[in-house]
Fold:
Amino acid sequence: MLCAGTACVSNNSFKIKEALEKEIKKHSLQDEILVVMTGCNGFCAVGPIMVVKPDGIFYQNLTEEDIPYLVEEHFLKGRPVQKLMYFPPKGKEVIPKMMDIGFFAHQTLIALKNRGLIDPEKIDEYIARDGYRALAKALTSMTPEQVIKEIKDSGLRGRGGAGFPTGLKWEFCRKSPGDEKYIICNADEGDPGAFMDRSIIESDPHLVLEGMIIGAYGIGANQGYVYIRNEYPLAMKRLEIAINQARQYGLLGENIFESGFNFDIRIQKGAGAFVCGEETALIASIEGKPPEPRQRPPFPAQSGVWGKPTNINNVETWATVPTIIFKGAEWFSAIGTEKSKGTKVFSLVGKINNTGLVEVPMGITLREIIYDIGGGIPGGKKFKAVQTGGPSGGCIPAKLIDLPVDYEQLTKVGSIMGSGGMIVMDEDTCVVDIARYFIKFTNDESCGKCSSCREGSEALLEILNRICSGEGEEGDIILLEELGKAIKDASLCGLGQTLPNPVLSTLQYFKDEYEAHIKEKKCPAGVCKELIQYSVDKEKCNGCLLCAKNCPQNAITGKRKEPQTIDQDKCIKCNMCYEVCKFNAIQKR
Amino acid sequence: MPKIKIEDLDRISEEIKKATLLREGAGRAKITVHMGTCGISAGAREIMNTLLVEIEKRDIKDIILATSGCAGLCSKEPMATVELKGKAPVKYIELTPEKIRRILLEHVLGGKIVKKYALAIGSERVS
Structure:
């Protein structure tokens, strides 16, 4: 495989190709050896480059004169020519290639395809990377029905968490009677620890806009909204700039690309309510009403904003549309699993070395994400569980680490794909405390309409607070389970229906941890303050006094160079001594 | 900016490539500072300002200074990508004003990668 990137070509890689073909023919090897020209390999500094497969031998700095000897030695006699091969400089630190680094090598970029490569505030840079070509293709050579069919065939499912087939949803909206239709982009990303949508809008707002314009064309909508949470000022600013630039170029407004199609977008800012991520509450918010969900049917596709047929999709869903239209449904559906096609963007956070934004093909295992991409757990600690789907999701324990990630598999083990938050936990994380954290969040964010959600989450929180402070009672676990199932059953919207999930899934896999809190009044992970005691390991302590100096309560006493003692009455369990001790002499039990 | 036609998309692409791609003759080096919320909160604006000040101080005219959004590895911000003409791009991580100054002198002007601060060389594979 000969590199035909500009750098190598300017160094005569085509002349090398001719010489290669001539020599191969001379030795009658043309039926066994195929010469293929490829795109730029990236390692332009050592071009012209040739890679010989299947061995994977990498030749560099080639000239025409090298070829006859190379062909004779390597292809005829089977002896690769060492002096022409690439070897990393001896004795010097080698910089790994991007694709050698696990974090990047295992990712497949579709929604994040422009990341790090364009200035998001310049529409021209987006255009230079195939921007708006998909829109041009859709408007000039596809009917709206064909656009919808392409999305249906691709197998794209909603990336906001529910995973409903996107093409089908578009079709429902298109088929609804009426001339006035709307589309909405749900950018109210509220899950703690999730920042996929924020990052997509900050880094590549035009990708989302292009997807929306294509979708509006397919559905027959002329007005769109982006509902974006107020807590994302940078994303909002870049989105505004992008919309203005698109309008100036005539990509939003009337008669886009002279196709006769009109479409424009308005930004609607959120006001700090997690429940507005729920589609009917979001629509109510756009209409100026209090954000409360309503009964469905009718679904937004039949009656949405202002009572008109409306199609709502998540940011990442819209961002995937242009690539599907540009490269085709077949290309997209070749990635992923049977029922979950394409890629998913995850925000990998928590106790993980490589915190960041990752886009991976569906079907990749949790092990690959956590170890190959994430670089494993910091401090060599043991992996305990991973929380997916935010407050609506569940904890997947370490024993299920080889689980392939797709919609069905995650649901099967008691969690959900959700919008893509992936919070990694280690042995120092208390799952009861985590469950309590999420219930506190959803309890706070409950709109209050349904008693089951409003009062139920309050009750769950009260029980969990008692358990974490050493006042857990016999029967609490059964109560949590019953209450959780009742809340799921009786609540109107997704917030209430899924808020018990963190509790139910941690009970499923970590019941022993709950029991330790309730029966033994102990927190095995050493987190719940009322249940742990800080003490000094007399064998490891050498009396350096670092902890005593840092204790805000002066609770640590002892002579220099002798083991210290912590006064339990004064200790407020702030964790300072544990953090500053260099000898691991502070114990938390 | 007048309304564009479909034919304009290719024309704009060519113009941008000439202005921003080194191998098309735009300059001798390109430094991209990654400015998503992660980068900015870690101090990317200071990195950018340091570069602007240094470039002006030395009166350098043929270096392209660009910004982009988040590069993905949020925990290693502030990050910058340095590309010299004819060479593969290098990603630098965990930057400070002192580090970027050294990178400007040794790598951009001197041609030698500062390995200590570099994460990797090359580009991500895009589908």
Summary: The first strand of chain B starts at residue 29 and ends at 34. Chain B has a mean pLDDT of 90. Chain B touches chain A through 48 residues (CB under 8 Å).
